[in-house]
Every structure is written in C-alpha cells, then in structure tokens.
Amino acid sequence: MGSNGQEHANGFHDGFHASGTAGKVITCKAAVVWGPEEPFVMEEVQVEPPQKMEVRLKILFTSICHTDLSAWKGLNEMQRVYPRILGHEAAGVVESVGEGVEDLKEGDHVVPIFNGECGECPHCRSHMTNLCARFRVDPFKSVMAGDGQPRFSVLDPATGKRRPVYHFLNTSTFAEFTVLDSACVVKINPAAPLQKMCLFSCGISTGVGAAWNCANVKEGSTVAIFGLGAVGLAVAEGARLRGASQIIGVDINSEKFGKGREMGITKFINPNDCDKPAHEVIREMTKGGADYSFECAGNLDVFREAFMSTHDGWGLTVILGIHPTPRLLPLHPMELFDGRRIVASVFGDFKGKSQLSDFVDKYMNGETKINLDGFITHEMPFTEINQAFQLLSEGKSLRCLLHL
C-alpha cells in the first residue's frame, strides 16, 4: 500500500466497477477475536451485501482506541459476545449501498461513527443532544438494526458449517470490508488524507469536541486533564485552540509528558510523585482550582480527583473515560452544593452525520489547526494487529495506524 491515502482510495475506486462486487457476498480478511484477551486471528470471513438503509465499506485504514482494548479484555461481561470483529476508528470508501440510502454512493470517502445519527428521531431533531434514539453508541449491540442479524460469517472447522461473527459499536472496522447502518457513515471531503481522517471517527472528535461543544472552554481559563492517552491529548488540543491560559496534564506515566507538551499542556503532575492528592496540588497551582477538568482514564478514584480539582462555585468536570465496573460515583450529594458540576460527553457532543464533515473541512482549510500527525505514533500492516494492541496496552502508543 502506498503512503498516500488519497491514492489508495482512488486506486480502489478506479478498479472498483470492474470487480462487480455490489450485491454479492465478499470474502475478505478480518481480525476476529474468539474470547477475552485471546490473540486476534486473521480469518477469511464472508461479508453479506448491505440491506435496506445499510452501507458496505472498504476499510483502508483503522486505528486502535482504548475502548477496543477494554472490549478485547472483556472487562464488561455483558460485552462478551464471540466471535466478534472489534474496531471503530477508521476511514475508507463506500463499496455499495442498500435500498433507500440516498446520501451516500459507491466511491464516496467516508469515516464510520459509533454514535450514529438517523436525522429523523426526536433526539436527532433536538439541539440538546447528539444521541440518536436508534443508533446511539451501544457497546452491547452485536447485530444490525434492520433484521437483528450479523453480516459476517466464518467457517467453523469443527463442524464444517458457517457460523455468525458479531458486530461491535455499530462499526466493526478490523476487517477489509464491513457493513454499517447508513446512520453511522459520514461522507467527508475527498481531498482529505484518509490515513489521518480515521482519527475523526473517535479520538479527535471526542476530545476536541468535549473541550469545545461540551465544556465550551473559554480563553484565559484553566484546564486539568486526567489521563493523557489520545482522548486526553485531544482535549488539550481543543483547550489550546480555545486559548486556555493553563493546561495541566495528570498521568502516572511520566513518559507521556513529552508528547503532552507538543499538544499544548503547560504543566504536568504525576500523582505517584506527589506528597498530597493531585487535586490539592492543582488547587494550589491554580489559586483555587481549575475552571474545567476532564476525566479521561475511566477510573472512579481518578474521577473524584478530577472533580475535587475544580474551582468551587463554577468548576465543571467532563467525564470521557469508559467505566466498565458497576461501582457508583464516589461523591457525597452535598459536595455538589459547592457549585461544581459534572457532565459526561459522548463523541464530543458532535452530531456525526450533520456536523463531522464540517469539522473535517475546517481542518482541511486550516481554520482548525489540529496536530493530527502527533497522535499517530506507530504505523504497521493490518496483519500485525496483535503487536499494535500490545503497544497500546503497555502505554507505548497513542494511535497505531493499521494499513489494510
């Protein structure tokens, strides 16, 4: 595969019509997980044609998010549906569309989104939320919305029969071809480099959007970010672009601080190196507390530190981390009477279908100067997905870009 995602996409499109795959079952490679923490297996899977209001994509690039890592580990037993194709951060080209799909066509450059937008339900028509009544993010959903069946299957060597392979987060991008509900596919500028655009599927949109759309970070404000993975650093990018005067990064891995500086973080705290709780350190540094804090670690103890680090009277804590355990929030209700507020953000409060393409356009025309290159720390072939997961698990990568 060439290094230019545009050429790759066009190359696929140029030979696409002659392939005649529309309406037919496609056999392709997919990274299938068969159980919690079991190595991904490159399987020959069959991918059915898209049905009504569905789209089949050729995935060209996919990257790995901590949500994929949590699902692979099986941290929530209700998510343990196998065999399954994980992955939700990707970019590719439309191979074919099902009946009724009018906003997408063969050859369109697209990114899949785990938090869909049908455009018709009361939620989608409301400016108060970016959740969709039917296609919102659902980690427990493993089949298509139309008929309740998966579109993948694999040959079971034990029986000689085909068995279903289940979907993940409305997307399943760890495959050369995948089928999505059209509500979960966003057409983007064809000039945009697809190898970078996959970051808009999750990490960049989630973090930057949390700073812009959810918190509405103000110029000159102070921000504390707990957890400096890709989402936390995307929050830093969003805060930097909004003109925050002080951006404090908190992480127990000090090796992340160098990358954090590239993303605009001005001060760092490793709680393991402190003789007092991180929230007390932050209150001293900011003369009372941060205006905004962002919890990006998915840890309730970290969440409490984030909440307590904000300024009384107006501090806002935004929850972005995935919390798989059934533990409840470690707060006394009276602590909320100090004026501190808490909110959670899904996909950075972006409405995917109606707002994400504009976000991409602003990046392309230079209006939004996000350091996308800084987030892609590794690139490797799709077949090396197990190594990529190991890098993320060890905290050695932000985003590993897999070339399909």
TrEMBL record:
Domain of life: Eukaryota
Species: Elaeis guineensis var. tenera (Oil palm)
Taxonomic lineage from the root: Eukaryota, Viridiplantae, Streptophyta, Embryophyta, Tracheophyta
Similarity comment: Belongs to the zinc-containing alcohol dehydrogenase family. Class-III subfamily.
Subunit field text: Homodimer.
Gene that encodes the chain: LOC105034612
The protein, known as: Alcohol dehydrogenase-like 4 isoform X1
Keywords: Metal-binding, NAD, Oxidoreductase, Zinc
A GO cellular component entry from the record: cytosol
Reaction equation(s) it catalyzes: a secondary alcohol + NAD(+) = a ketone + NADH + H(+); a primary alcohol + NAD(+) = an aldehyde + NADH + H(+)
GO biological process terms, semicolon-separated: formaldehyde catabolic process
